[in-house]
Amino acid sequence: MTELRIQNASKRYGSTLALNEVSLVVPSGSRMAIVGPSGSGKTSLLRLIAGFETPDSGLIEMGSNTLCDGGTFVPPHRRDVGYVAQEGALFPHMSVADNVGFGITHTPGRTERIIELLQQVGIPADMMTRRPHQLSGGQQQRVALARAMARSPSIMLLDEPFSALDAGLRDAVRDMVGAVLGAAGITTILVTHDQAEALSFADYVAVMRDGRLVQTGSPQDLYLHPADPQTARFLGDAIILRAVVTDGIAHTLLGPVAVAAKSGPQTIMLRPEQIRIRPADPSPSTRGRVVSRRYEGAAWRTVIEHVPTKTGRDDFVLETASVFVAWVPGSDAFPPGTEVSIDLVGSAHVFGKN
Ligand code: ADP
Ligand code: MG
What we know:
Elements: E1 4-13, E2 16-26, E3 31-35, H1 42-50, E4 57-62, E5 65-68, E6 81-84, H2 96-100, H3 110-120, H4 137-149, E7 155-159, H5 167-183, E8 187-191, H6 195-201, E9 204-209, E10 212-217, H7 219-224, H8 229-234, E11 239-246, E12 249-252, E13 255-259, E14 264-270, E15 275-279, E16 286-295, E17 299-307, E18 323-329, E19 339-344, E20 347-350
Parallel strand pairs: 3-8, 3-9, 6-7, 7-8, 13-20
Antiparallel strand pairs: 1-2, 1-4, 4-5, 9-10, 11-12, 11-14, 12-13, 14-20, 15-19, 16-17, 16-19, 17-18
Helix pairs in contact: 3-4, 4-5
This protein binds adenosine-5'-diphosphate and magnesium ion (MG).
Keywords: ATP-binding, Cell membrane, Ion transport, Iron, Iron transport, Membrane, Nucleotide-binding, Transport
Family: Belongs to the ABC transporter superfamily.
Protein name: ABC transporter ATP-binding protein
């Protein structure tokens, strides 16, 4: 069980500041997901931790060891870190067994260890003599994981290892990988640009943008209390509204909703599951019209357009556009064109008061 600490790490490639004063603690035995748009510095950060690159400044520590701090630099093979890259990770000319055993050439009991590792990741021993191209994508990624596990690292770095797999397989392989790493107590960092994967896999999520770490927290914390609108949208559908708050109620274009914020103008966020729709009724209510919907089994992902009414507060602006998303139970029928009345449930998040 090993904690990883990064303090003020920066890395520049020519004119690109790939990492800008990044500080991060990954608690011992925990799983952290790093999310962020392409080019935000996720791979650069993993490469610094693995020792494939040297930071321009900053400190990296693992347990009681300093990996680099300006003077010290521990080379990759002495770091006790496993790394699984996005794809093309296996040596194509080597068998499955030789791939897995690559880092333990002189270890006694090597063959038994290879068989044990393959068993852990669910690859039958009779596939040991195959070459990587004779395996499916999911099997290749599991062999890559077994290879990374061979030297029993304290920390595992996974750089979008599931992104080449199709949806069903991806969930299965991710769950299996999570179980194997969890059972071994390995501190894990998973880079992904799939927000659902980040929220479901990790104990902690860190959001990167333009080389900076903009927010770290539990999945629930980041989903419900994002630091800014960009982060909010990155972690799922978000309805971002201007509001005037009086006595704990935010008055918005879509009606009133509870908030924990002081009175005055604020910017708030709702998640789609906080929007309830019902057939439009004649009483004064916030109105909308269903624009489109997509069936997702348990619910319809329903796109709704706000419809101004004479009684409504039309002086508010819906900053995400005049359309927004609601989740509607699968049994309800609101086809496109339906006029609906809208209620807001739960309490809204207020930006700028984290
Ligand atoms: P991500 O993994 O989030 O997509 P990267 O860490 O790969 O982002 O890249 C961050 C930025 O650093 C990008 O602008 C990328 O072009 C740049 N970069 C990364 N590695 C190198 C390199 N070896 N040489 C030059 N620029 C690089
Ligand atoms: Mg990357």
